[in-house]
Write a structure and sequence with these properties.
CATH architecture: 2-Layer Sandwich
Protein name: 6-carboxy-5,6,7,8-tetrahydropterin synthase
Family: Belongs to the PTPS family. QueD subfamily.
Keywords: Lyase, Metal-binding, Zinc
Number of helices: 2
Structural class: alpha+beta
InterPro entries: 6-PTP_synth/QueD, 6-PTP_synth/QueD_sf
Strand content: 35-45%
Largest sheet: 7 strands, mixed
Number of domains: 1
Catalytic activity: 7,8-dihydroneopterin 3'-triphosphate + H2O = 6-carboxy-5,6,7,8-tetrahydropterin + triphosphate + acetaldehyde + 2 H(+)
Radius of gyration: 18 Å
CATH class: Alpha Beta
Order of helices and strands: EEEHEEEEEHEE
Bound molecules: ligand LPXRUNBV
Shape: elongated
Amino acid sequence: MSEFRATFAKDRQKFSAAHFTLFEDGSLERLHGHNYNVTVTFEGTAAELGLMFSFHDAKALVKELCDAWDERVLIPSVSPWIEVTERDAQLEVVVTTPKHRKFYSFPREDVVLLACDNASCEHLTRLFADAVAAQLHRLGNAVTGFEVAISESAGQTIALSRSI
Ligand SMILES: Nc1nc2c(c(=O)[nH]1)N=C([C@H](O)[C@H](O)COP(=O)(O)OP(=O)(O)OP(=O)(O)O)CN2
């Protein structure tokens, strides 16, 4: 049973990134950007001295994960509609859907290849939660669960909860 919920929704917990969303009918958006805001809530019990974990450590963890996607182009790497080719320091991306064929070329360092088939807010939230789970050991053993919530724009948020 979780005793406490610690929610971190600092202004700096954000990443500005470009993407396009694919839709089932083969339509896709033009490349565009969002200032994604990230909120993470950790659930758990108080350990020594009534501390779940050091707030500093939790905020540093979340900020590091935001920085990994900040000022990047987010490209799905496992989509049947997207072909990615690395050529020298460039990443060539060909999107071929039943409705569209588009070619992009980005400096490799500007791109994050996502382990998913669409750069949707749902997938971003799940991948962010996977990354939090992989780093949770840094916060000790008091965490029994967490929730990640990502907003693409004001008034529009995807949230996902995980139990540990
Ligand atoms: N289920 C999802 N649907 C859509 C997603 C998504 O991640 N999951 N994403 C988008 C686009 O990224 C788009 O940029 C956001 O679309 P939209 O809701 O139209 O955004 P606006 O901020 O322009 O919304 P307004 O309500 O018009 O202000 C689309 N769909």
